[in-house]
Amino acid sequence: MTQIRASITGIQGYVPDYILTNAELETMVATNDEWIVSRTGIKERRILKGEGLGSSHMGAEAVKGLLAKTNTSPEEIDLLICATTTPDFIFPCTANLICDMVGIRNIGSFDIQAACSGFVYALTLGSQFIETGKYKKIVVVGTDKMSAIVDYTDRKTCILFGDGAGAVLLEPDAEGYGIIDSIIRSDGVGYPYLHQKAGGSRYPPTHETVENRWHHVYQDGAQVFKFAVTNMADVSAEIMERNNLASEDVAWLVPHQANRRIIEATANRMGVSMDKVMMNIQKYGNTTAATIPLCLWDYEAQLKKGDNLILSAFGGGFTWGSVYLKWAIGA
Ligand code: UT7
């Protein structure tokens, strides 16, 4: 029997127009372009401006573009999954809002919260519904308005993050393309090192939570860096090994864009040279759930049908994971 796999048949990104440069950050906190570029690789990031616009706005823009590009009508979509750490509201979920904004009605839609690994988690989950034959067209979105929770008085974190969104269409494939394997992992040991403390049920908003800046991202960067380097490299090597992939079999590594040094360490561990690594951290920074689809969108013209891609991510939780897929778009 032919194995049905979920393949990506369309990719679309969206980034807001406003560019926050390192030079502008220099006017806000005690930092400098040289430090930011040498420690992270980031030169600029996009910021969503405008009253009342949240992650759903960017996600909906990406989905609208995706439907137009793939010639798909909203009525054809069977399921929409949104990965986000910056939902518009605690409830309803951002996936519900995106569906409404793009005219997708009466289907299941829900959010996944796995911080920077959200897209890898959502893709893994979506692929199951295709493989079982339950659904034929699934949209997976990664969208984050990190500027909503970044503390622009904290130089250790404010230089890292940006806003953006990306969306893919998943459809069944019986010709050997699509998602072949995936690994998702988590370890709650990560909570103290990377979190947004208040706003949920443990610490609902009070004057004190606001004064303590608990509604912003807190990160112990050095600790997170250590875990990220090890786990992202290990999980990428593990998915290669268990699928008998040598480094020359990998056409592209598509890593989460948190820090250029973490990306280089992962590529090094896999034996993959940097010319096979997708990187756009310099222009978007860390857009959390959007980094991987934004990379695929940026590099789409260079991808060939049948290319072996390894997607890898690490983030708050801690969460991490990897996806091995064969690119299905092209001649
Ligand atoms: O995507 C989710 C997962 N997140 C990550 O993977 C992020 C992982 N962590 C990192 O990428 C890095 O730890 C950072 C980029 C956040 C920080 O780089 P680092 O090399 O670990 O720097 P550090 O935090 O150890 O700080 C080194 C120095 C400190 O000064 P002292 O104490 O040595 O005098 C900091 O105060 O750099 C200082 N510093 C800065 N200086 C200029 C920290 N931030 C800045 C800044 N500009 N923006």
TrEMBL record:
<dbReference type="InterPro" id="IPR016039">
    <property type="entry name" value="Thiolase-like"/>
</dbReference>
<keyword id="KW-0808">Transferase</keyword>
<keyword id="KW-0963">Cytoplasm</keyword>
<comment type="function">
    <text>Catalyzes the condensation reaction of fatty acid synthesis by the addition to an acyl acceptor of two carbons from malonyl-ACP. Catalyzes the first condensation reaction which initiates fatty acid synthesis and may therefore play a role in governing the total rate of fatty acid production. Possesses both acetoacetyl-ACP synthase and acetyl transacylase activities. Its substrate specificity determines the biosynthesis of branched-chain and/or straight-chain of fatty acids.</text>
</comment>
<dbReference type="GO" id="GO:0005737">
    <property type="term" value="C:cytoplasm"/>
</dbReference>
<dbReference type="InterPro" id="IPR013747">
    <property type="entry name" value="ACP_syn_III_C"/>
</dbReference>
<keyword id="KW-0511">Multifunctional enzyme</keyword>
<feature type="active site">
    <location>
        <position position="116"/>
    </location>
</feature>
<keyword id="KW-0012">Acyltransferase</keyword>
<keyword id="KW-0443">Lipid metabolism</keyword>
<protein>
    <recommendedName>
        <fullName>Beta-ketoacyl-[acyl-carrier-protein] synthase III</fullName>
        <ecNumber>2.3.1.180</ecNumber>
    </recommendedName>
</protein>
<dbReference type="Pfam" id="PF08545">
    <property type="entry name" value="ACP_syn_III"/>
</dbReference>
<feature type="active site">
    <location>
        <position position="256"/>
    </location>
</feature>
<keyword id="KW-0276">Fatty acid metabolism</keyword>
<dbReference type="GO" id="GO:0033818">
    <property type="term" value="F:beta-ketoacyl-acyl-carrier-protein synthase III activity"/>
</dbReference>
<dbReference type="Pfam" id="PF08541">
    <property type="entry name" value="ACP_syn_III_C"/>
</dbReference>
<keyword id="KW-0444">Lipid biosynthesis</keyword>
<feature type="region of interest" description="ACP-binding">
    <location>
        <begin position="257"/>
        <end position="261"/>
    </location>
</feature>
<keyword id="KW-0275">Fatty acid biosynthesis</keyword>
<dbReference type="GO" id="GO:0044550">
    <property type="term" value="P:secondary metabolite biosynthetic process"/>
</dbReference>
<dbReference type="GO" id="GO:0006633">
    <property type="term" value="P:fatty acid biosynthetic process"/>
</dbReference>
<comment type="similarity">
    <text>Belongs to the thiolase-like superfamily. FabH family.</text>
</comment>
<feature type="domain" description="Beta-ketoacyl-[acyl-carrier-protein] synthase III C-terminal">
    <location>
        <begin position="240"/>
        <end position="327"/>
    </location>
</feature>
<comment type="pathway">
    <text>Lipid metabolism; fatty acid biosynthesis.</text>
</comment>
<comment type="subunit">
    <text>Homodimer.</text>
</comment>
<dbReference type="InterPro" id="IPR013751">
    <property type="entry name" value="ACP_syn_III_N"/>
</dbReference>
<dbReference type="GO" id="GO:0004315">
    <property type="term" value="F:3-oxoacyl-[acyl-carrier-protein] synthase activity"/>
</dbReference>
<feature type="domain" description="Beta-ketoacyl-[acyl-carrier-protein] synthase III N-terminal">
    <location>
        <begin position="110"/>
        <end position="188"/>
    </location>
</feature>
<dbReference type="InterPro" id="IPR004655">
    <property type="entry name" value="FabH"/>
</dbReference>
<feature type="active site">
    <location>
        <position position="286"/>
    </location>
</feature>
